[in-house]
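thought: fold this chain, then report.
action: predict
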Amino acid sequence: MSLITLAATAPDLASSNVVIHAGLLDWTSETATNLQDVLRVVAITVAILFVVYKAVQSKFAIGTIVLSALAAGVFIWLVFNVTDVSDTVGEDLPGSAPASAYVDVG
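observation:
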């Protein structure tokens, strides 16, 4: 192959590579969205199995069932609201840095 032939095919390779990357990003985004729904269903299933396990382990003691159900409820709430919780954590921490500070050096 000559240098002219390589130069003529280079733009074709570059444009096809961009299409492949765009398709890969779309596929990754779609897969992540679908995986989020699946993981939420798995989290609910794990929480229910946890309550059942603790109930059987404690021989159906009502206190253990109530506490494990509360723990499972908090776990499910955190799974469904993880972005809301992460957005508020920085604002609620004591001693967090201010958004902007003015320093007079004069």
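thought: worth noting. The chain has a mean pLDDT of 77.
final: tokens above.
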